[in-house]
Amino acid sequence: MDLDAYQAVHAASWQRLDDLTRIRRRTGAEADELVRLYQAAATDLSTIRSAAPDPETVAQLSQLVARARAAVAGTHEPSWREVVRFVVVTVPAAFYRLRWWTVAVMVAFVAVALVAGVWVATDPDALAAMGTPAARQEYVDDAFASYYDPGVGFAATVWTHNALLAAICVGTGVTGVGPVYFLWSNAVAIGNIGGMMSAHGALDVFLTLIAPHGLLELTAVFVAGAAGLKVFWAWVAPGPRTRGRALSQEARALFTAAIGLVGVLGLSGLVEGFVTGSGLWWWVKIVIGALALAAFWTYTIVLGGRAVRAGETGDLTDDRAGYALATAG
Fold it and tell me: Residue 74 CB: number of other CB atoms within 10 A?
C-alpha cells in the first residue's frame, strides 16, 4: 500500500471532518455529512492499521476519529456509560492482571514486617532506638490509640494522604526504586511499631486497631507496589513489543489501577475514620474490615476475571491510546 498516495486521496475528506467536529451548531446537512465522513474515516483508519501502520498517521487519524465519534454520539449519555464501564470493566481488569504480583508483594511485605517486629521486640538496642522508655510508654498507653480519632475530617485526611502515596508509588514505578522504597519503608515502620507494642505487652491493642482498616488499606498498598513494579518489569522485559510500546501500554493500564485505588482507599478511610476508633467490640471491627477486604477481592476476581477473559487489560481503547503497531511473536 502506498501510504502517501492514500493520504493524498483522503486528506481533503479528513480535513473536512476535522472542520465539522469543531462546529458548535450544525445544520441538518452538516450533521449528515459529519456522520458520513466519520464512518469513512473509521474505515480509513482500519485500512491503514492493517496495511501500513505508520505510527504518526495512525495516531493523528485515531484522534480525529475519536473527536468525530464524540461529535456524532454527543457527550452526556456516553460519558456516563464510559464512567460505568471504567468502574465495572476497566478498573477490575487492571486489578485482576495484578493479582499474583499483589500476592507476591504481600508475602515479601509481611516477611519484612515480621522480621522488623521480632527484632525490635527481642533486641534491647533496637527497642531503645525507638525512643526513651517514657516516650515509648506514652505512645503505647495513649498516642497509638488516640491517633484513630473518629470523624469525617480524619477519614478524609487518611484517604487523600494514602491515595497520593499510592499514585506516587505507581508513577515512580519505571525507576524500580520508588515502589521498593515505598514498600520497604512501610513494612519496616509497621513492624517496628508492632514490635515496640509487643515489647510493652500491648500487641493485642496493636492488632485490634490495625486490623479493621489495615486489611484493606495494606492490600491497596500491595496493589500499588505491584503496579509500580510491573511497570518497571515492562521496561526491563517488554517481550515481543517494543520497549516504548510495552512501557506505555502497561503504564496506562496500571495507572488505571492507581485511579481505582482512590476508591479502595476511600472505603478503607471510612473504616479507619468511623470503625477503628469507635466503641464497637473489637471483633465487630475486624469483621467489618474483613468484609471490606472480601468485597475488594470479589470485585477483582469476579468482574476483573470476566473482563480479562473478554480481552480487557485496563488500558485505553485503541482510538484513545493512539496507534497499534504490528509486532512479531
Answer: 9
Residue burial 287-315, b: 16+ Cβ < 10 Å; e: rest: ebbeebbeebeebbeebbeebbeeebbbb
Residue with cell 495516531: 59
Q: What is the DSSP string of 85-110?
A: HIIIIIHHHHHHHTHHHHHHHHHHHH
Predicted TM-score (pTM) of the model is 0.71
Per the CB < 8 A criterion, the answer to whether 45 and 61 are in contact is: yes
Listed residue (235, 238, 240, 244) closest to 328, CA to CA: 240
Query: Please, what is the Cα angle at 165 between 183 and 307, to 5 degrees?
Result: 85
Our measurement of the distance from residue 126's CA atom to the centroid of its chain's CA atoms, rounded to an integer in Å, reads 36
pLDDT at 45: 85
Rounded to a whole number of angstroms, the distance between the first and last alpha carbons of the chain is 23
> Which residues are CB-contacts of 197 (< 8 A; sequence separation ≥ 6)?
140, 144, 203, 205, 206
pLDDT digits (tens, 9 = 90+) for 212-225: 999 999 999 999 99
CA distance 247 to 293: 30
Contact residues for 229 (Cβ-Cβ < 8 A; gap 6+): 101, 105, 173, 176, 179, 180
